[in-house]
Amino acid sequence: MVKNSVLEVKKLCKEIDGKKIINDLSFSVEKGQVFGFLGPNGSGKTTTIRMMTGMIKPTSGSVKIMGHDVQTNFYDAMKNMGAIVEHPALFDYLSGWKNLIQSVRLTGEKHDESYLKWCVETVELSDRIHDKVKSYSLGMKQRLAIAQSLISSPKILVLDEPTNGMDPSGIKDMRSLIKKLSVEYGITIFISSHLLSEIENLCDHVLIINKGTEVVNGSVRSLLEQNQPEFNFSIDPAKINQAVLLLTEKNIKCSQSEDQIVVHTTRSDIPHLVNYLYEHQVFVYSITKSDNSLEDYFISVTREVG
Ligand SMILES: Nc1ncnc2c1ncn2[C@@H]1O[C@H](COP(=O)(O)OP(=O)(O)O)[C@@H](O)[C@H]1O
Ligand SMILES: [Mg+2]
């Protein structure tokens, strides 16, 4: 293998009852990446993750973790992966600590107490670790599940919508924990979400799917560059057509919106554009910046398909 791929998904397909749920999905996650897996509800994120973790079989295609095929070499593949799919699997009537002891028994790993304590400290649950899990908040349960995953020292941690249903402070804690796992411990992270805004600052790469099909796969930086901000130029309604023509001639992306024109440009180019229009007797009376976030882009691309 030339690249440093921790996870490699090739031509993955899943049909259920004759319906295509996942359609020819290919991507790879490189060592050290925080990889965002985005799509609206029902787009196929959990189904993909279930195939990645060997919980369900693909109709066709393959998943490799650290070069080991999940289908043909399940044990070697999975020993490198920690995953929390949908809801964390925990015993509510046991304490957080006893849940961890239970996991150690189940995985057959041999660990001393100090290692388990390190896992608990890492997820910042030391204060409450001897309380019963049923008294935990959603965020604490997720953090305990992450501690559980850390027991087997995974190379990659797969988190399926870990912030779903959390309040803003829970979301913030989860984000900083994920950042810590990535930056301080070098764990590769694969995180799914239906809200780009929740993970946009966390990820360096995003794959967006809709109806089981790839829409976009690229670095967050390139997406931000492609998504230039929009400015609304307010001008004389009689001059709108002329203004659109003038700007289009200069290869500036723009469109008409009621009595304004929407111009895709950078802040530093605005004085030049205003001056250029002025020289052609098209006067700009005011400019507002529209709040065009990556989130809007995400919503628009996931609307376009199908
Ligand atoms: N076991 C199943 N039987 C039938 N349909 C399913 C099954 N699992 C998932 N689906 C369908 O597949 C689609 C994708 O679901 P899912 O992977 O859970 O999406 P997401 O996690 O992105 O919200 C949905 O339309 C869902 O109804
Ligand atoms: Mg899901």
From TrEMBL:
Keywords in alphabetical order: ATP-binding, Nucleotide-binding, Transport
GO molecular function, one term: ATP hydrolysis activity
Domain ABC transporter: 7-236
Keyword NADP: no
Gene3D superfamilies to which the protein is assigned, alphabetical: P-loop containing nucleotide triphosphate hydrolases
InterPro entries: AAA+_ATPase, ABC_transporter-like_ATP-bd, ABC_transporter-like_CS, P-loop_NTPase
Keyword Nucleotide-binding: yes
SMART domains from the UniProt entry: AAA
Stretches assigned to coiled coil: none
Annotated family: Belongs to the ABC transporter superfamily.
Stated name of the protein: Uncharacterized ABC transporter ATP-binding protein YhcH
Species of origin: Exiguobacterium oxidotolerans
